[in-house]
Specification:
alpha+beta; about 300 residues; 18 strands; six-stranded antiparallel beta sheet; single chain; Tumour Suppressor Smad4; Rossmann fold
């Protein structure tokens, strides 16, 4: 019999996680898996659990938000023998789950995964710390980690919108930054920078034609500060080609160095969680890959075929 481990964040989403994981165990049993469940107890616990699992685990599934999965990936990368991963979204925005073709019903998502296919997913690093799909610095990027957990649990995505409105009304500050790739350098005052391996962030579809196994990261920067221009640009980001939005600069690269003149007001946001650092220089790149079992429905959109890599 195959072995499966569930790592569940009991504070993600709503409803009883004990009841949900028991339903999962029944479905996994029907599919030939002997299953054990772990519930996380503190920040970073999911990664420690993943790191300490036995080598004979056939499938490791995380249940929680994007941050929970990011922890599981980090723990898996520290292992000598990497495990096959999957992820069931239970959080507030669930960007990864949406990109992977999952809906809001975790039971249906599990069934789709078990009928799915294995793909290799690029994993990025910022100064040695792994992240799955986004690292952001500057305006609005702190909302994900500054929004109180209780507010997110009670109001869901609306809690983030409240945070965005508050941030918008505070005004916009720029910070001096030098961004260097293997091909070009940009230096000046910026409002924010996003470094991504994803098409979707904060519940919004922003980028087109993102492949999550092409060895590239997508970079978006802006120096817009006026409120009317921010509103216009945010609208255009969701309705137009990103490369044609005035005030934004977009490119793809396999390596990025970011130098800050001084520490900004807020820390980096990494997969929805705060990345506390006193560094002023950051190196970002695609550094690893992990094998994932995913639903088949969106794979052709977000992954390159092996023959085209």
């Amino acid at each position: 019999m195959k072995k499966c481990v569930l790592i569940c964040n009991p504070t993600s989403g709503k409803g009883s996680k004990e009841k949900l994981t028991k339903e999962f165990q029944n479905i996994l049993d029907e599919n030939g898996y002997e299953t054990k469940t772990y519930f996380t107890k503190y920040s970073g616990h999911a990664g420690k659990i993943a790191y300490g699992l036995a080598d004979d685990i056939d499938l490791l599934i995380s249940l929680g938000g994007d941050g929970t999965f990011s922890e599981v990936v980090a723990g898996n990368l520290e292992r000598q023998k990497k495990l096959l991963l999957s992820h069931i979204p239970l959080g507030t925005t669930n960007d990864l789950g949406a990109m992977f073709g999952m809906g809001k019903n975790p039971i249906n998502n599990l069934k789709m995964i078990l009928e799915g296919e294995v793909r290799s997913l690029d994993i990025c690093e910022i100064n040695g710390r792994s992240f799955v799909y986004v690292a952001g610095l500057g305006k609005f990027t702190n909302i994900a980690y500054d929004t109180p957990r209780k507010l997110k649990k009670n109001f869901g995505y609306l809690a983030y919108l409240i945070g965005a409105i508050k941030s918008f009304n505070r005004g916009t500050k720029t910070f001096e930054m030098e961004v260097t790739t293997t091909e070009e350098t940009h230096k000046g005052l910026y409002t924010f920078i996003l470094v991504c391996n994803a098409s979707r962030m904060g519940g919004l579809d922003i980028f087109d034609d993102v492949k999550m196994n092409d060895g590239k990261i997508e970079v978006l920067m802006t120096n817009i500060t006026k409120k009317k221009d921010i509103i216009k640009s945010l609208y255009l980001l969701t309705t137009s080609d990103i490369t044609k939005v005035p005030g934004f600069y977009f490119f793809r690269t396999d390596y990025l160095k970011v130098k800050l003149n001084s520490l900004p007001r807020h820390n980096w946001c990494i997969d929805g969680e705060e990345f506390k650092s006193k560094d002023k220089e950051f190196e970002l790149k695609v550094a690893h890959d992990v094998e994932m079992l995913l639903p088949s429905k969106e794979l052709d959109k977000i992954f390159l075929d092996k023959a085209n890599k």
